[in-house]
Amino acid sequence: MEKINKIKSIALFLPNLLLIMSCNPKDKFEWNAGISAPIYYGASGPFVEYFYQGKSIAGASAGGIEPGWGLTSGGYTGGDIYKPVPDSISVSWICDADGVQYKVGHKLPREEMLNLFKNKIIDSYGEKLDYGLIVTGFAPGGNVTVWMRGGNSSTEITKFKAKNIGVWKENDTNYKKYVEEHEKLSEGFKIANIFRFFHGIPYSVWEKGDKQHKYDLGFSSEEDYKYSITYYSKDGSVYFLDSTPYFLKWANRFVDYPKNLNSSHQLKLPVQMDLIWHSYDNESRWFEGNVLLPQNLQVTFEKGHYDRMIVTIPKDTGGDFVEGVIYFVNKQKQDQVMRFRLGRFDDKQKKLLSPKYTLPKGFVVPEWEGRIPLQKPTDLEYWQEE
């Protein structure tokens, strides 16, 4: 009787074991497809499909995206939960910046990807994470980058060029009229157009990659105000900083190196920071502005061997703006990068009382390299450092 019960138990267990084994067979991993595009240089109709031995195993698509370079955006994704590592890829999209449609198929370094899936990724805090996404980025000029991503960390896999297959609806007058009318009404287009006006369309940075550096970011203000910083790099990557863990006490802002700030972070240098600074109380005083960084920032950073960038704002003196200073810092010195202004937002007038943009000394608007002529902003106000 005991033997019969054992046989029954084994018989009941085997199907479950086989089910478990079939869910996660050898060299198959749990991953999904992600899509990306640089902020303010978006992609319309991006589509990616991954293949293994000629068979489609996963894909993703969306109407239009610009979440930031390397970040993923919402859209349709498909494929089994556990999938083989792909050996090739197919992509297509229409570039928002130049109106060109791009398309290509390309081989992937499968063995390298397989090893990464097996060995996991170590993030900047030393935590070991599973890779869960293969992200494909669509950039101007037909530039494509593929990353494997785990948590908030990613590893670049390959770069390649897609084929220019012509201007999308080049001779469709109704489509052109629709686009022009949409651009006139779209606040998002106005913001993107100003960004492109100030920073150009850096095709080469997507071809070669935006250099990363070992350094960290900090914020310090003399008053206990809340803050947030949105930070953009040259290739359209986006970083978001809030009150923790980047805050440094005012008295120790140049000497305090707390453990929660990590100078071994691999970060790109900013070309622009959008800042908000406001009080906690009910009579909230709100300041904001968009700060363009000096165009020689990388040369300055590398020459000075810095390990931190600190954004500082002293007390609110009750005026129409506050003035702050950005520094590069290491344990031996602190050097001023630039001064900036944030305008106070007036609730009654519903506007900033100082220009929204700050330009550094010697800033030169870059030459526009795009196929479609840039619309020069007509109502742009800025304060420039003297």
What's the structural blueprint in terms of helices and strands?
Blueprint: H1 2-23, E1 28-30, E2 32-36, E3 43-52, E4 55-61, E5 64-65, E6 76-79, E7 82-84, E8 88-95, E9 100-107, H2 110-119, E10 121-122, E11 128-129, E12 133-139, E13 143-150, E14 153-161, E15 163-167, H3 173-185, H4 187-199, H5 203-208, E16 212-214, E17 216-221, E18 226-233, E19 238-241, H6 243-246, E20 266-268, E21 270-278, E22 286-292, H7 297-304, E23 308-313, E24 321-329, E25 334-346, E26 351-352, E27 357-359, E28 382-384
Parallel strand pairs: 2-12, 17-23, 22-27, 27-28
Antiparallel strand pairs: 1-7, 3-4, 3-5, 3-8, 4-6, 8-9, 9-15, 10-11, 12-13, 13-14, 16-20, 18-19, 18-21, 21-22, 22-25, 23-24, 24-25, 25-26
Account of the protein in words:
With 386 residues, this protein is an alpha+beta fold. The protein has two domains: 30-167, no CATH class; 187-384, no CATH class. Helices cover 20% and strands 41% of the residues. The chain is built from seven helices and 28 strands. It has helices at 2-23, 110-119, 173-185, 187-199, 203-208, 243-246, 297-304, and strands spanning 28-30, 32-36, 43-52, 55-61, 64-65, 76-79, 82-84, 88-95, 100-107, 121-122, 128-129, 133-139, 143-150, 153-161, 163-167, 212-214, 216-221, 226-233, 238-241, 266-268, 270-278, 286-292, 308-313, 321-329, 334-346, 351-352, 357-359, 382-384. The strands form six sheets. Strands 17, 18, 19, 21, 22, 23, 24, 25, 26, 27 and 28 form an eleven-stranded mixed β-sheet that branches. A hairpin with a 5-residue loop joins β10 (121-122) and β11 (128-129). It is globular. The protein starts with a helix and ends with a strand. Residues 17-24 have low confidence and may be disordered.
